[in-house]
Amino acid sequence: MKIGELAKRSGLAASTIRFYESKGLLKAVSRQSNGYRDYPLEAVAVLSIISDAQQAGFSLDEIKQVLPEDSSSWKHDELMAALKKKIADIESLEVRLAQNKAHLLSLIQLIDAKPEDVDCKDNAARVMESLGIVGKT
């Protein structure tokens, strides 16, 4: 199939498909005598895998490492290792995000705990002092 049909079936722009091909992610591409690319039907599935993997956080290089030459030659151990590593990366990111969220929530509470008789400038100084940040004098 030509790139326009592949773009229609995959939902991706033709430029994106060409980019993936230039990066070596789409390998089973032949050229017709007029120079047009000719994509096999399995290219739709490969593009779906690439899109799904990117949405899961895989880089194009990571995808390229585990994407087989054809759909019948998946490298099971490498694929499983890559998937497990990505899960570990996501879990690590979740921990960092939870810490960042907790820090921001405590900062909001500290700022909101402004005494009635304190103006914003003095409250900012109070907050910075509470955080161990010495204000300019």
From TrEMBL:
* Top-level taxon in the UniProt lineage: Bacteria
Q: Which SUPFAM superfamilies match?
A: Putative DNA-binding domain (SSF46955)
Write one Pfam family the protein is assigned to.
MerR_1
What is the name of the protein in this document?
A: MerR family transcriptional regulator
Where the record annotates domain HTH merR-type, the positions are 1-69
Q: Which N-terminal stretch is annotated as signal sequence? A: none
Q: Which UniProt keywords apply?
A: DNA-binding, Transcription, Transcription regulation
